[in-house]
Design brief:
Strand content: 25-35%
Largest sheet: 7 strands, mixed
CATH topology of the largest domain: Ribosomal Protein S5, domain 2
Bound molecules: L-homoserine
Helix content: 25-40%
Order of helices and strands: EEEHEHHHEEEHHHHHEEHEE
Number of strands: 11
């Protein structure tokens, strides 16, 4: 049997929801996979620094899946079309992880549910925010204790758009996590709890007005700002041009603004582009729809 698996880009944290909130974007990596006598890996799209052999991350994750179910991993013929920019805070590694686990599960006859795949993905990734949105789609809230993950996701408002400023360089998530303080002040925790709850309410009630406060953060963004060129100016420009709210996308360096409509998104994109030019910050701006779907599977003949 041959399968096509589409896995969405995701943006995590959305400001206050450090390691807990994620949102699926309408921007997809595609995998085609089938059992084969010998390993055959083909890469398309963004291929720089991606191994086209057994060291490929998607294949490593597939092997983790088979290790978990206690069966030998079959050799496969796999074609990967990578569109999600790598190392930019848009969930490219979560997409490789979810792609590998979903592919393994299909080839094994689906012994695990998506929730079990989420728990395995969380164990491998260390936090469930991107992987949950990549598996279930929409706006996903996840929390975990040890290996146990509780997660729920809702359909995002259809008219809302994500405006992304994507820097022309990558940022290591590992490094962007290492620099965070180990302890936080209670006032900062309270600040973020209220905002994360408000942000969830914004999605549930489609109330874009709540995003301005609901996307504020004190747990990670202040410590990461110096790693991201033009961050305060670009976020301020997005808000001034009519974004409901704006924040660092995941661990960065990309920046995310959410808007109530495509028209407003165009204004926000232009403002971010102009500001980046003025500051001589290199990168691209994109307007992206939000995705109701997480990883999609199509059986092929
Ligand atoms: N939530 C994680 C972080 C990364 O901010 O470090 C998500 O990609």
């Amino acid at each position: 049997m041959r399968y096509k698996i589409d896995v969405p880009a995701t943006t995590a944290n959305l400001g206050p929801g450090f390691d807990c909130l994620g949102l699926a974007l309408d921007w997809w990596n595609t995998i085609q996979v089938e059992p084969s006598e010998t390993l055959c890996v083909k890469l398309r799209g963004l291929t720089e620094n991606i191994p086209a052999d057994a060291n490929n991350m998607t294949l490593e994750n597939m092997r983790c899946f088979f290790e978990r179910i206690g069966k030998p991993a079959p050799s496969v013929k796999i074609t990967m079309t990578n569109r999600i920019p790598i190392g930019r805070g848009l969930g490219s590694s979560a997409a490789a992880l979810v792609g590998g686990l979903v592919a393994g599960n299909l080839l094994a006859g689906e012994p695990l549910s998506r929730f079990e795949l989420l728990e395995l993905a969380n164990e491998l990734e260390g936090h469930p925010d991107n992987v949950s949105a990549a598996l279930f789609g929409g706006f996903a809230v996840s929390t975990f204790e040890g290996a146990r993950v509780t997660s729920a996701s809702v359909e995002p408002p259809r008219a809302w758009r994500a405006v992304l400023f994507i820097h022309d360089h990558a940022l290591s998530t590992k490094y962007a996590r290492e620099i965070l303080p180990k302890k936080i002040a209670r006032a900062d925790a309270v600040h973020n709890i209220g905002r994360a709850a408000l942000l969830t309410f914004a999605f549930l009630t489609e109330n874009v007005e709540l995003l301005a406060v609901g996307m504020q953060d004190r747990l990670h963004q202040p410590y990461r700002e110096h790693l991201v060129q033009g961050m305060p100016e670009l976020l301020a420009a997005a808000r001034a041009a009519g974004a409901g709210g704006a924040a660092l996308s995941g661990a960065g360096p990309s920046l995310l603004a959410l808007t109530a409509s495509p028209q407003r998104a165009a204004r926000v994109r232009d403002a971010m582009r102009d500001t980046a030019r003025r500051l001589r910050v290199n990168g691209e701006t994109h307007i992206v729809k939000l995705s109701v779907d997480g990883a999609r599977v199509t059986p092929l003949k």
